[in-house]
Amino acid sequence: MKPHEAILGLSLHRPEMLPIIGEWMRQSDVVLLEEPPDAGFKKMLAGAMDVDTYVSQLDAEYPSFSCGMCHLLRELKAAGIKILQIEPYLEVLLGIHNFFAEGHRPQDLEKRSIQYPVYLAERNATGALIAYYQATAKASFDASIEAVMRFARFDAARLRLRDSLRAQALAPFVKQHPGAYIEAGLIHYPLWQLINKQKQNQSKVRPVFLADDAMKAMGAKGRLFGPGDQLTLLYMLHPGITGTTKEKLLAAQSMIYSKIIKKNEQKNNLKDFPHIRDELACIHTAKRLSFQDCGRLFPLIRRARSTTARQVVNDYLATMKSRSVV
After folding, report:
1. What is the per-residue pLDDT across 199-231, written as a single tens digit (0 to 9) for each?
2. pTM higher than 0.85 for the full model?
3. Cα(216)–Cα(20) distance, integer angstroms
4. Which residues, 6+ apart, have CB-to-CB distance to 123 below 8 Å?
5. How many angstroms separate the CA atoms of 210 and 229, rounded?
6. Minimal CA–CA distance to 68: which of 34, 20, 32?
7. Of 175, 203, 218, at which residue does a domain stop?
8. Distance CA 142, CA 295 (A)
9. Angle at the Cα of 148 (from 145 to 150), degrees rounded to 5?
10. Is the same domain home to 145 and 201?
């Protein structure tokens, strides 16, 4: 890490990434986490709450990773590194949920407040996601493609708002702590540019794809953006794009990718990077499929488990290869 250079650590929330994340975090004087302030987190960090108890309250999607991260953050705190939670979009969203829990309705939100655009972004993305699930369960291939692209557009709009709010909140901390480590998921790649555009920020933020270290150790190349993430990033960076063959191809490939990727969190043989290997394999498989290939495969695997879906796709590709040889 160079002087006056903050790091945006773009990573996967997978247990095998923790050693790499820890290496980068230990080089910083402050770690800025991708989550809203939480009283339970502060208790856990101070040792007043057990890690397992804290993580169980989160209903974490990846509990092994969350537990490992908590232990890592405790270690960093003991070493004198400051730990802060900064994610204004999610903080506002939690406030909206509490507002509704008190009996208020969406029309009660003040339209000039930040709550209103956050509510709209979340409502639109959630509605599009439900429609996407419904379409991929029973609609035609073409209708499913449209549902995927519609969700990706709304998700991209939500992410643009989320990153914009976080960039504004992070800029003062980066100015005060030019050697900061900023936690972020891969989909938040544009965040570093947004922070650097803030006028009060004199130091610079550099994006680092943390999985690159793991892939180098594996002898692999490329980036861990699945076709769905590629589509979302396309809309994030180019919101006006529409009607291209690239959009439809990425949408089609994403439907196949989502069926063959392993969903469960793996805990064993983490030094072999099982999640990264699986994601890379699925990305490479999806890239080999044309739009027409996806259309043929989709009805065959739409209701299949991932292991079955993967076998069907692999058999299909093997057949296509043998035909091309003949």
Report:
1. 565 668 999 999 988 888 888 877 889 999 999
2. yes
3. 12
4. 106
5. 17
6. 20
7. 218
8. 8
9. 110
10. no
